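Lecture notes, structural biology module. Today: joint structure prediction for complexes of two components.
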Amino acid sequence: MSEEKKKLHRPITRSARQIMSEVEEEIAVHLEMREAELLGRGLNASEAREEALRQFGDMDGTREACYESDWRMERNVRRKEYLSQIWQDAVHGIRQLRRRPAFAAVAILTLAVGVGANTAVFSAADHVLLRPLPYRDPGRAVTLWETERSSGTRRDVASGNYLEWVERTTSFETLGLAEPWGYDLTGDGPPVAVQAWLVSAGFFESLGVEPMLGRIFLPEDHTADSRVVILSEGLWRRRYGADVSLVGRTIELDSEAATVVGVLPQGIKYPGDRDIWGPKTFAEWELTNRSSSYTFAMARLRPGVVVEEAQADLDRVAAALAEEYPRTNANTGVAIVPLEAQVLGNVRPALLVLLGAVALVLLIASANVATLLLARGLERERELGVRAALGAGQPRLVRQLVTESVVLAALGGGLGLMMAYLGVDALATLVPPELPRAENIAINGRVLLFAVLVSAFTALIFGLAPALRFSRPNLTLPLQGSSRAVTASRGRTRLYRALVISEIALALVLLIGAGLLVRSFQDLLDNDLGFVTEQRAVLQLFLWDQNPTPEQREQRVNEIEERFESTPGVDKVALTSALPFQPEKIDSDGSLTIEGKELPPGQDRRIYTTIVSGDYFEVMGIPLRAGRSFTTEDRMDSYPVAIINESGRRRYFPDEDPIGRRVTIGVMGAPLTREIVGVVGDVLPTTLESEPQPELFIPFSQSLSGHVSFVVRTDTDAAAMLPSLRAQIWQIDPDQSIYHAATVNDMISDTLVERRFHLVLLVSFSVIALLLAIIGIYGVMTFSTSRRTSEIGVRMAMGAKRTDVVTMILRDGIGLSVAGIALGIGGALLLTRFMVHMLYGVTPTDFTTFAAIALVMLIVSAAAAALPAYRAATADPLASLREE
Amino acid sequence: MSDPKSQLLRGTLHVLILKTLAGGPHHGYAVASRIAERSEGVLGIEDGALYQALHRMQERGWVESEWGHSDMGKRAKFYRLTEDGRRRLRVETASWMKYSDAVMKVLQPAKT
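The predicted structure, tokenised, for the full assembly:
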């Protein structure tokens, strides 16, 4: 029965013509039988013919219907046959891969790395770089900066200058300004310090941002007694549970009610992502303040006005101001920077470098897969030859190899997808928060597809190479066992050598890039900060709200200082208005005058001012170079004093002793003359890359600021002291919010986030690249030695020593490596210049880095070639000859 | 095919063929003769319709076909029931019985 069934089953496919002729034949046979019957009943031939046709009925319709039925059936059979063949190939492919687990693992991993890394990083880049900012018509939004004419450096904007620009320029539809601010969110629970911006009328319009809920500020909101605020989406979600009805309700800020009038959407990265936006009103002195720069200005170009025209417009105004107010504005210019460039400016070059790195990794991965598949294909020639000789047609062989490649690509792609998901998560945690839109990076489908296609394409092309060889009908060649040439065929050898050389070259480029970043990082960390960071904690407070009068503030500060100093583990306490590396640092004043000395016109008169207590320099480890520090003798009613730093002394007193000289500066108000009593060492002001700036220190006792940071020198680890220090403050005043509490080390480390991010990424990429290249060299050397087994056997039979064999193979491997290194150095010389923004202290063509990396590469690739060389040399020469 | 008699028959043709093939493989002509014989010519099925039905049934997997040789030694295409066809026959026969029973029940009282 089952036998019979098999016979009836029809594995052989039929063509349309065959089907048609079978239908014809069947009908003809039928008619013949019917006629025979009718003849038997006594009809004559023509009557029988006619009757048979009559009984048959619709001849054409039947023919058609039968043919169509059969053809449909045939198609089904074929489809099933085809699917089952593919399935067979896939099963065969998986079996082949399992037979060579090392090959399979390496190929799959290589593909996965290519797909995974590429997708993750490209998703991030696409998200941050390529999508437009969430602003209306962002091309017209620009940021405005004051510049120091003599040096060209950019700085924030003084309110008086901004107001002049509003008055006198014609290029802008709107202008706006934002001032960094801080609020305490009070009411329920302990007070929370929240960073805020106060924005002038026109700011949101210039930015081009629409509120997510409610409205932006109206002109009448910008009055001294208005209590309205706009919240960030983040604060609205975190603290108020995304409650839509919050708009119109009041919250408590600094223990006073304020009405929420709107919520801004996510991703407002300029001037910075802060949680509360309040309306700015200008104090009397701010209207004419042209020297104290602490605000961020922006504007929206009129339609049709280009940046250059607006710049010319601003230059004209700046020149007029320089003429009218030479004391403050002689050296003040204006720079216009498109918002897009401002927000993405620092990020773009770095991300482009990362994208380049990813592309290199993908190339290396592809080259690796190609080498692996080529080597594997050569090994399999005999198997394929047998199959071809046994009658497998070329299409079938091609399909078999394609399916195997597809299985490989599918497994690699699948694993790569998982790696991409993990990678994107890792990136999202690693991305510095200053990057625009860092919060919701997700896998980008198009990118994933692209990476998968590239890898699959590579797998296909190189997987197919051996199959294409059998398009030539010379099937016998691979069957003649020993026809294997003593050395591998020239053309293909050259191809996979070229692949390995390019892999080494590409990996070297990446390694050099990473090496340059590492060197930059080291150089940065080696920078002398000018102060001590270990065992120092800092707590930043706003004393104003809780202590409105200077007397109250002085008392409160003394209280806290005493408390801290009596805390076990605390060595000494000092006070400052701003520490180095605190981003919202320091006021600067551009109107310094020196008694008895005429500064030349156009001379930069800017000097940073910091308010400190007498112990500050000692606690921070800043050396006193001359004169004295502040003492208890410096009081409100004694003569105002100041201490200048080395940079300030060099700029303003190049050949004289500054001690005893009197200088006049205006910080946040009326100018005051002070006598310089000391000189201290320089510190790096904002980041490890920054240069020391002229700085003037003023005693806290003579300027009872409300914005103070306590610096605490501890006996042991500063981080462990933070909780008890915080508790001390709340014991004194439970309503006192603490703006920031950290170790000085962490504060510095925070400024390195972005750099560390690039470093980690590029180093990981180059390590991956190095691993892939090692695999490539190892694979090719193993393969080419196995191809040369008989040659080696002959050599050894002729008396060659093992060391000779090792040397021969090693020389071969090192030759590849040297070629790759030479090519890689050339590539790196061309490419590292794009990293110049990411480097510090090293040039893009730093010789040490290039040499060191090249040496590492040489050693590593020699090691990768050594193993197969050793294996070949220890093989039994007779056995290797017999293998033929 | 506009003849109402054949229209009625069209649906029943499948079950007749299945029944005929249940006895063993036959070529198309033999199936036609057997049905004619059994029904004493009353059903008057056109040979063309029979072949169309055979091919459609083959497409549905109820019958299989193979070229072989007839008793007279002539080359002919033989049809045989598949397992599916046998199942189909049981189902169709049962529903036919039910149907004709019902029709009979309606017709009989009118007769008396």
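Point to remember: Residues 1-11, 471-488 of chain A have pLDDT under 50 and may be disordered.
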